[in-house]
């Protein structure tokens, strides 16, 4: 059965049929998936009952996997999953929901903010691939915003103003905006700010997009209050309902998105229930801006 893709939002998002991603894909199938991601930015697959090994194998067909180290406060001995899997569940080592005041849970609350995965890395991520192993009975939706459509909708003067701007991204900014400031000296060094362009051009399609994230804390060369007010305005514009798709998870749903063209966030759910979500990430291949030590 051939792979078919049906666009399900005015601007972006494809629902894919005829794919079994748990098996090895042919080069032609991988190319068609890549083409669809380039065009639609978010792909939704249903009924993909992955094991971790199968998810890792499929991810490797799309590109090298980004190691999860450096993107969380959990130490190696505290991790529920391997280094190639990002644990975006609400579970501890005992596979039970984390306590409300657990430090890892409070850090993970940052996922409820609009963000682009790994924008806090000097070389940010390309694709994220999220498997819904056990989904919330209510809530826990993931929302995606099309940053290309948001850029296109800007007025000409704003496009000129932002064309060459560079921002600084850090997990310290995103978590700090929620009041989480409990970082060790080692973590502050690991999460030191990196620089990213405010406007990105997609290498395959040539489309421009806004590159925003909750990790974005300032704009290089701007006074901090002005920068944060402007970032807030751009984010409000980019996440208007017209640019947003809401994914309501079913068990074994699998969603792939292009971090170069989208932002996303998870919504609240009953955290006394198990929500087991496992993400692999295709690494990026280049920085978006020249990296100098952030002030």
Distance between the termini: 54 Å
Largest sheet: 7 strands, mixed
The number of strands is 15
Integer count of domains: 1
> Which series of helices and strands comes N to C?
EEHEHEHEEHHEHHEEEEHEEEE
Low-confidence stretches: none
* Shape assignment: globular
In CATH terms, what is the architecture?
4-Layer Sandwich
CATH class: Alpha Beta
Beta-strand content bin: 15-25%
Widest sheet, order of strands = 1-2-3-13-5-15-4
Structure description:
39% of the residues are buried. The protein has helices spanning 27-40, 52-62, 103-108, 147-152, 156-162, 171-176, 185-190, 224-238, and strands at residues 4-7, 14-17, 42-45, 86-87, 127-134, 142-146, 166-169, 194-197, 199-201, 208-210, 216-219, 244-247, 254-258, 262-266, 276-281. β1 and β2 (14-17) form a beta hairpin. The chain has eight helices and 15 strands. It has a single domain, classed as Double-stranded beta-helix, CATH 3.60.130.10. The strands form four sheets. A seven-stranded mixed sheet has the order 1-2-3-13-5-15-4, covered by helices on one side. Strands 12-6-14 form a three-stranded antiparallel sheet. A three-stranded antiparallel sheet has the order 8-7-11. 24% of the residues lie in helices and 22% in strands. By secondary structure, the chain is of the alpha+beta class.
Question: Main attributes?
Answer:
295 residues; alpha+beta; Double-stranded beta-helix; seven-stranded mixed β-sheet; 15 strands; globular
